[in-house]
Amino acid sequence: MLTLQKKICLLGDFAVGKTSLVRRFIYNRFDDKYISTIGVKVSRKTVAIPRANDIVNLTIMLWDLAGSEEFSHMRASYLRGAAGAVLVCDMTRAETLENLQVYIDDLVQLTPNAHFVLAANKNDLLAQHQVSPHEIEQFAKKYNISYRLTSAKTGEEVDTLFRYMGNMLVK
Ligand code: GDP
Ligand code: MG
Fold first, then answer.
1. CA 20 to ligand 1 centroid distance, Å
2. Most exposed: 16, 39, 147, 159, by fewest CB within 10 Å?
């Protein structure tokens, strides 16, 4: 059995649900209060991932940072050493999808070997959606990244999102 540890950064605009996705994945909890993340919070969880005839114990270190203004000042140090990034948009706010382009440009420049996955979050708030699953699919195709329609509130696709990332990191 092999043990690995990888750094994964959460990226996306304020209030898209980055902290909530981390909380759901790590503690299986959801909180309606909005607490803007101050600085960087690192959480970790170890998952067993099958590889060939073996099992890899992967410790996922999730790095979670506050809004984009802060990001612009510390993105280089935030992204340093990241093996992967979860790009998060909020399906109830179209601009949060467009704004991901900036984060993708940064990733390509600063961490060219990192793997990314897109989480189109708040999939439970159907009536308020400004972005359709089709538009998410088009965006993901354009950047050649995989995506999941997630809800940190219901837990939908949250585990599969992080496990998908984990699988890519142990390949
Ligand atoms: P962050 O700034 O990206 O870390 O966003 P947060 O995780 O703090 O979430 C911002 C707000 O959106 C909070 O009020 C959360 O409760 C709410 N939220 C996050 N994810 C979801 C979701 O999947 N569904 C719903 N309905 N609300 C969510
Ligand atoms: Mg946060």
1. 5
2. 39
